[in-house]
Specification:
Elements (H helix, E strand, L loop, with lengths): L5 E7 L8 E3 L4 E2 L2 E2 L5 E4 L5 E3 L6 E3 L7 E3 L8 E3 L9 H9 L5 E4 L11 E2 L3 H10 L14 E4 L17 E3 L2 E3 L6 E2 L25 E2 L1 E2 L18 H6 L3
Parallel strand pairs: 6-7
Antiparallel strand pairs: 1-2, 1-12, 3-4, 5-10, 8-9, 11-17, 13-14, 15-16
Length: 241
């Protein structure tokens, strides 16, 4: 993967399926980015809030209108309401916002909060292809829930991520092993952190899903565990992605 690109942005989602936080740096461990999706919204049936219904997940419309971030050295993330204000009582905020009394924020236990893989890595080449395939439709990277957005060199083809399957990647002096690509369709058909939702389409006329993940055993980076060098709530809200 020599010269595959450079990391342009790092995203983390302390509470699964809420709007994430933009980081300047992050520590990586075998589980993924430290603190990423470490918490989730769980209902009375033990299902975790998500954008879809599966054996483990329950679709909870409205979660993406909320955000989460780690503040200082706090071990638990703060939940931010749709205005960007920190909720003093996260569970009360969730129940009021979602209109249900059986939900609460819980830390990951034996059941993983990840859908499939721990690190999601789309490229700017693929996002540019999506934008060109649906002119006039706002395409925000956050709708694909990336962890690492890689800016590829000029001329890189869309879905170049497919070619990385089985390869190894190095980020500065650190690396990830047993790298393989998976697919992820754009799922968000509601209002979220990027504003009005796009129409109900996957990733353009070809309906080709978005390549999304690397997995393996990342080597730990000696970085701030909770991303203290994060932009303010105001700067993130004004950012296009």
């Amino acid at each position: 993967m020599t010269g595959a690109g450079v990391i342009e942005r790092i995203w983390r989602y302390p509470i699964k399926s809420t709007g994430g936080e933009l980081l300047h740096r992050a520590e990586v461990e075998p589980r993924g980015l430290v603190g990423d999706r470490l918490f989730a919204v769980r209902d009375a049936q033990g299902k975790f809030g998500s954008g879809k219904n599966t054996r483990r997940f329950r679709r909870m419309p409205g979660l993406l209108q909320l955000s989460s971030r780690y503040l200082g050295d706090a071990g638990e993330p703060a939940l931010l309401d749709p205005r960007g204000a920190v909720a003093p009582d996260p569970n009360a905020c969730l129940r009021r916002h979602l209109g249900r009394e059986d939900v609460e924020v819980v830390r990951e236990g034996e059941i993983s909060h990840f859908d499939r893989l721990p690190v999601s890595v789309p490229t700017t080449a693929t996002l540019d292809w999506v934008r060109s395939a649906v002119p006039g439709v706002p395409v925000d990277e956050r709708r694909f829930r990336p962890n690492l957005l890689v800016r590829t060199p000029p001329g890189a083809p869309p879905f170049v991520e497919d070619e990385w399957s089985g390869s190894k990647a190095r980020i500065r002096r650190r690396g990830v092993r047993r790298v393989r690509a998976v697919e992820r369709a754009m799922r968000d058909d509601r209002r979220g952190p990027a504003g009005p939702p796009p129409p109900l389409w996957c990733c353009g006329p070809s309906q080709k899903p978005m390549p999304c993940g690397w997995t393996g055993s990342p080597r730990s980076c000696p970085r701030d565990r909770y991303g203290r060098e994060t932009p303010s709530s105001r700067s993130e809200k004004s950012s296009p992605g």
